[in-house]
Amino acid sequence: MSAPTSPAPRAATALRRVAALLRPRPLRAARARATGSRAGAAPSRGAAPSGSGPAVVTAPDRDALHRLLTGLLLQHPGEPMALLLVGLLPADGRDGVGDDSEDLLRAVVGRAADAVRDRDVVVRLPGGRLAVLVVGGTASSARRVGERVRAALQAGVVVGGALVDVDASVGAGGSRAGATAPTGPRPTPAEAAARCADRLLAEVDAALEVARSAGTGVAVVDPGEREGARLADLARLGTDLRRAIAAEEDGRSASDALRLRWQPRFDVRAGRWTTATARLVWADDARAPRDLAAGTALAPDLLQLELRRALRAVVAWHADGVRVQAAVRVPGEALGRPGLVDLVAGALEEAGAAPGSLRLLVDDDDVAADPSAAAVALARLSVLGVPTSVTGLGASRSSVATLGALPVDELVVDARLVACLRSGREGDARLVRAVVGLGHGLGLRVVAAGVDDATTHRAAVALGCDAVEGEHVGPVAGRADVAGLVLRGEGGDLLVPSRRPVLPAPRRAPGRP
What we know:
By secondary structure, the chain is an alpha/beta fold. It is built from 18 helices and 16 strands. It folds into two domains: 8-38 and 46-239, Reverse transcriptase/Diguanylate cyclase domain (Alpha-Beta Plaits, 2-Layer Sandwich); 258-494, TIM Barrel (Alpha-Beta Barrel), CATH 3.20.20.450. The protein has helices spanning 8-21, 28-34, 62-75, 102-114, 139-154, 189-214, 226-250, 290-293, 298-319, 332-335, 339-351, 364-369, 371-384, 400-403, 415-419, 426-441, 454-462, 479-487; strands at 55-58, 81-90, 121-125, 129-135, 157-159, 162-164, 166-174, 218-221, 258-267, 272-282, 325-330, 358-363, 388-393, 410-413, 445-448, 467-469. The strands form three sheets. The chain has an eight-stranded mixed beta barrel, surrounded by six helices. Strands 1-3-4-2-7-8 form a six-stranded mixed beta sheet, with helices on both faces. β15 (445-448), α17 and β16 form a beta-alpha-beta unit. The longest helix is centred in the middle third of the chain and has 26 residues, at 189-214.
């Protein structure tokens, strides 16, 4: 039996690549030409001593940055490493900072280099972005470095004799012990470093996106903080989504990291299962990442993946004689965008599915936020032949004023309101009865969401709901489980509620019999 291969050659190869990429250049003269400071301003905190400074390199693409980060992790085994991504924008907002703004970029790079230590590395990236690799840095120190770099840039740079104000958003994160420990064979040092670099790049990408969108300036991935832990989850979602979409487009088997789960719905009038609502979850902890992705650049990709997988599932169901619609929730940020209809049409064509086999769910809050944009989007979907439902009615602000003009055929009572029926109080029943009456008055089918026990089920049906969904009706399940539920003809016990009174009688006016 041959001896196992030593990891030394692989590590040496990685280090040679990094050495080829790292081409430090003296900064003393460059700074004197490219940077300047306001009159009377103190030197930047953390500036390098005269005649020395951090290495400044150019990474032509993300892969080059990954190789650089991997190499530094190998060079400093056991030592923490922080990474910062800096997105730049001139304060006047006129032209942005692009690859063609060479003088400005050189000045910005010099200013950033003044704000970090000699042992750190400043990397110029395509698109007018910078990266800073902080050797020995942690998540907490990355925040301090990020704030220092941002403050140095906001102090302004001199370009062509003129002072230019530059604003920046910074995403940061740090390596941490055990974060990349695999469940299989022990990785080589080069493999472990590459995995750590993968995670760190994904995390700081997510942090930079949040810093830009929220306007916080600096966002740091730090599992010890609530927002930092959210960024770590967001980075994980971005990585899993990219892998899943790449697998779909290449025709490979779907990623196991994200799975589609289904919430079946039973029509108590027709006596059959009619719809199953899709929900993309992480396979290892069953959390749904939809709320996490809301308002970020990941939301459209998440919707695309859900549509693709849901429509493939419904095509397979129909081939097996399971006549059930697939329902997919539309995020609020996608509702008013022209690309929504094209995305849905493309997914239907790709799967070979009929428009009526898909149902799109739009939240009442999102409709109320911009009723005119929602009406246009829903009208276009109606022309396409895709039925739509308004969900969440009865909670927070409402689109009731415009509901009658929307091209929808179904109303879903919010699960929080339905859950109140469990108490048996007359006031709670009146609220649900009012929503059901509104829906029926508009000619809509009414669905009770969140029916999680027999008492709530009986009350919802007694109040006139046409369909029910929830843990009592049918728990969240896989695609094969939904097919089995339909083919076995289950659901007979959901048809007729108990004849015993489940709610107090309506309140009578004083003095009336």
